[in-house]
Write a structure and sequence with these properties.
Blueprint (H helix, E strand, L loop, with lengths): L18 H22 L6 H11 L5 H12 L2 H17 L5 H11 L4 H6 L4 H11 L5 H7 L1
């Protein structure tokens, strides 16, 4: 089971997305960020060629990206809403006490592009981890078991 930050059960919102799933998505998103950082550091022959290569790369098949996208799409709508809420919370614009209103806002904004929205967010892994931490959950034990 995944370890939770010290906080009473009553203080934590009940998540519709399984904690292990949120942690797994965060780990995979971190892998994607690492790949993108490595790609960004490659030397190109010149700026014009680099831009052309980036256009070609955007449509590439990435198994990790496809996996995250399919996992998010397979979640219930409430689970998808929780992921968006966690990401928004983790960006630092809100406090844990804002969870109910922030979740309502995420529910209002929900559409069929949630997976693409989340996967297209730079620092998604950090935001999910921080959002979980702010509401009293942690991926530490999950990461120890799976990394």
């Amino acid at each position: 089971m995944t370890q939770r930050s010290p906080q009473t059960e009553a203080d934590r919102p009940e998540l519709s997305v399984p904690l292990e799933t949120a942690c797994y998505i965060a780990i995979k998103a971190r892998e994607l960020d690492a790949k993108e950082d490595a790609d960004d550091n490659e030397d190109g022959s010149n700026p014009t060629d680099d831009n052309e290569m980036e256009v070609l790369d955007e449509g590439g098949d990435d198994p990790a990206l496809e996996e995250i996208t399919s996992i998010i799409k397979a979640l219930t709508i409430d689970g998808q809403i929780d992921l968006v809420t966690l990401m928004w919370l983790g960006r630092g614009d809100y406090a844990a006490s804002d969870w109910p209103s922030l979740r309502e806002e995420a529910a209002d904004a929900h559409n069929e592009h949630t997976a693409e929205y989340l996967c297209g967010t730079p620092l998604l892994a950090d935001y999910l981890s921080e959002g979980l931490s702010l509401i009293g959950y942690s991926c530490a034990e999950y990461e120890e078991q799976h990394l």
